[in-house]
């Protein structure tokens, strides 16, 4: 049963991390076209997905803190990689959108 919960948390990290990165990429594309309201909405969607991913991660960390050690598999590492990439990509997307805004103001 605990393995199933861990697998669900791991898959949540992958799914929400992927969604966040995708939304951030769409936000950049919108900003490139000067559609800043859409870009802002896509960044908000990306951040909401990151919050959900963090909930999944917190579940895993809580289990570890309680002494319930889980086996670290390639899937576990992959899920953490998805989350960290999505966080970095979303942060960079915000900077790129800000640059497009500055260019649009000129």
TrEMBL record:
<keyword id="KW-0598">Phosphotransferase system</keyword>
<protein>
    <submittedName>
        <fullName>PTS system, lactose-specific IIa component</fullName>
    </submittedName>
</protein>
<keyword id="KW-0460">Magnesium</keyword>
<feature type="binding site">
    <location>
        <position position="81"/>
    </location>
    <ligand>
        <name>Mg(2+)</name>
    </ligand>
</feature>
<dbReference type="GO" id="GO:0009401">
    <property type="term" value="P:phosphoenolpyruvate-dependent sugar phosphotransferase system"/>
</dbReference>
<dbReference type="InterPro" id="IPR003188">
    <property type="entry name" value="PTS_IIA_lac/cel"/>
</dbReference>
<keyword id="KW-0813">Transport</keyword>
<feature type="modified residue" description="Phosphohistidine; by HPr">
    <location>
        <position position="78"/>
    </location>
</feature>
<keyword id="KW-0479">Metal-binding</keyword>
<keyword id="KW-0762">Sugar transport</keyword>
<dbReference type="Pfam" id="PF02255">
    <property type="entry name" value="PTS_IIA"/>
</dbReference>
<dbReference type="GO" id="GO:0046872">
    <property type="term" value="F:metal ion binding"/>
</dbReference>
<keyword id="KW-0808">Transferase</keyword>
<dbReference type="GO" id="GO:0016740">
    <property type="term" value="F:transferase activity"/>
</dbReference>
<feature type="active site" description="Tele-phosphohistidine intermediate">
    <location>
        <position position="78"/>
    </location>
</feature>
<dbReference type="InterPro" id="IPR036542">
    <property type="entry name" value="PTS_IIA_lac/cel_sf"/>
</dbReference>
